[in-house]
Here is the input.
Amino acid sequence: MALDSHIEKVLWTAGEISDRVAELAAEITSDCSPNSPAPALVGVATGAFVFLADLVRQIKLPISVDFIRADSYGAGTESTGAPRLSLDLKLDVTGKHVILCPDYFVVGYGMDFAEAYRNLPYVGVLKPEFYS
Here is the structure.
């Protein structure tokens, strides 16, 4: 894959991610009672969608899923310091456990830099020449 040459180092391999997602799903399943309201899993921005999809398939409870999007980068790579909510929840989460799945600033496994690298099966750090 040509994108691999852009990666300085791999933080977590596809196998490590898969193992940890399974552990998290088991923890969520055991922590939430089947008799309480279904937990709501909320993906933050588009970078959470791959992780969230893998996670929800392994949770052994009824759940609901929604997304929010907060943007403080605009078209640049540095935060303006003033986040703007551009997509709000459609779900009513009143009385529910809410589990946020954030979008951190690394690449791969759904997370991007300038809308690229989401398709990497691992999480990696870009080489400086690809973001400077």
The radius of gyration is 16 Å.
